[in-house]
Fold:
Amino acid sequence: AQSVSQHNHHVILSEAASLELGCNYSYGGTVNLFWYVQYPGQHLQLLLKYFSGDPLVKGIKGFEAEFIKSKFSFNLRKPSVQWSDTAEYFCAVNAFNAGNNRKLIWGLGTSLAVNP
Amino acid sequence: KAGVTQTPRYLIKTRGQQVTLSCSPISGHRSVSWYQQTPGQGLQFLFEYFSETQRNKGNFPGRFSGRQFSNSRSEMNVSTLELGDSALYLCASSGTGGVLEAFFGQGTRLTVV
Structure:
């Protein structure tokens, strides 16, 4: 079955530390990949996405992610986090289901707390 | 362009009651998906509607149902509420035939007492 695995459920960092959140998926076909962020009290919003082309994608607020097809991974990175990055981060994969319709499959999320 | 609008924002219901949540997608979007978000369970997919037809369905009991109207607005209904149904219910709309990028509403916080 198609699934998305986020390795870290809770991450605590100090400001200026580097961040890498892992995301692996299980699906052998063509995928679209997303990272969404949910700031406290706010709705889910798109951080970045990969559809095709350059596997290194840049998103908002200095985030980037690299698609490594051979590893089925789409890890999120940021060189220097800020207190305002405290949020929940979700990885999602757009894959085809049995009826050949696309379906978003979500990881369980990673809660990031950045200490000032 | 207005975003995804969900109403109401907060609801408190009693066990055994039923509830209807509403979602208005972004203008022009025809796909509406519903999710249940709880701590520790992440985002659980309920179902997706496209052009008034249910296209994808998650693993929720039949107490959870939905529909979509010709203007793409969608409603989700939960009957015979249980305490475990307390959650944030999120609606997302997408602009194409496939779920290529989802835009989320603020959600409806349902508390069952």
